Amino acid sequence: MPKLKSRKSAAKRFRATGSGKIRRRKAFKNHLLEHKTSERKGRLSKLTLVDERDADNVRLMLPYM
Fold it and tell me: Does domain 8-61 have CATH number 4.10.410.60?
């Protein structure tokens, strides 16, 4: 059986926790930051979990995660 390739774009965006859940960055922290409050930018800096409805699709993209 040949090795499965992982989607490199997904591999750069997601990583697994110790319990097997998938972590991701939050959106809206790339540009147009001047008018956003520092509290909002701080919240956006933290990692969050991928929703369980989307986790199966991410696992398909990353077969060895």
Answer: yes
